[in-house]
Amino acid sequence: MKTLFITGGAGFIGSEAVHQALERGWRVVNIDKLTYSGNLASLEDIADNPHYSLLQADIADPSAMQAAFATHKPDSVLHLAAETHVDRSIDSPAPFIKSNIVGTFVLLEACRNFLKSIKAEEEKVKNFRFVHISTDEVFGDLATSSGRFSEKTPYAPSSPYSASKASSDHLVRAWHRTYGLPTMITNCSNNYGPRQFPEKLIPLTLIHALSGETLPVYGQGQQIRDWLYVGDHVRALFLVLERGRIGETYTIGGFGEKRNIDVVRTLCELLNTLSPQKPQGVSDYKDLIRFVTDRPGHDVRYAIDPTKICEELGWKPLENFDSGLRKTVEWYLNHEQWWRSILDGTYHGERLGTSV
After folding, report:
1. What are the boundaries of each domain within the chain?
2. Which DSSP string corresponds to 29-49?
3. Is the separation of the CB atoms in 315 and 236 below 8 Å?
4. 3-class secondary-structure state, position 19
5. What average pLDDT score do residues 79-88 get?
């Protein structure tokens, strides 16, 4: 059984990757610092799986990463660990520099040193892969043009978050070209789905609505995003890991461009149907929508052209936006304790005594 390191495996996309990796027959070591967005409740159903283990560690800690590679001897790495929230990066950029740039550097060096240490194991070295998961935000803003981001789009990040991710992408490419590290990069559009921390648009809106709170929408909600269901995204990541070409980049999008205001309204309409017992004083969830001051430097439009991964690796999304959003809403309605424990802070207690 081959061993896969998944960094950030207690997060939103990471927890989906852990589940799919186990289904695909990998032994998984989840390396997660367990910061605010890491939630072990997202992994409760596989916590006792003999092929899964959690290593609570900081990817920016060189000694911890060197020890992890020496102990577990991975066959590949899915690097998902990152600080990801744009608003937080505007308020406090330093953690983004440490996690996204320094952390990626430390991981790349740990991989390089590990492969040097096992150079006699030719087959293991030959098949080793490092997949770095990035974002479409590194490309900046399409404004209102009809174009879409592709693997050839120049970088033009707008926020401290996207700048830190762009920096990490450049490091990964440099370590491939200079040292021959077998890396690949993916740049995805906005993910949504189960287990997403409730600071992002869809879960924040959903939870606020169920609580009868106002639904804040930046500006007039005209910003356009390309929405990708998390399960489809992670299936793409495993295709890249198992069949992608070393040194290549793959952009992954969901063919789901929507204005933010339309996402919020569609979500409200779904809740009107799926959760008709509304909070006191609410007759229609859409009545809770409130427009607020726009975010500084807010990009207008993101959209991805996934032609390369579709044609080269045979990937296509199984969910459209409507089907994926319905699955997402149903998950949150059926897992109220998951998100309520985040709101009241009790999920932090689950971190104790869980490291191996």
Report:
1. 3-351
2. EEEE---TT--GGGGGGGTT-
3. yes
4. helix
5. 93
Amino acid at 41: A
User: In whole angstroms, what is the distance from residue 293 CA to residue 217 CA?
Assistant: 8
CATH topology of domain 3-351: Rossmann fold (3.40.50)
Picking from 185, 162, 198, 190, the residue whose alpha carbon sits closest to that of residue 301 is 190
Q: Are 9 and 31 in contact (CB under 8 A)?
A: yes
| CA-based end-to-end distance of the chain | 19
- Catalytic residues, which ones? 136-137, 161
d(CA 5, CA 263): 34
At residue 356, the pLDDT reads 25
Q: Quote the pTM value.
A: 0.94
Instruction: Give tens-digit pLDDT for 247-289.
Output: 999 999 999 999 999 999 999 999 999 999 999 999 999 999 9
Please name which of 184, 190, 87 lies closest in space to residue 135, comparing C-alpha atoms: 190
Per the CB < 8 A criterion, the answer to whether 55 and 81 are in contact is no
Do the beta carbons of residue 183 and residue 173 sit within 8 Å? yes
pLDDT of 324 = 98
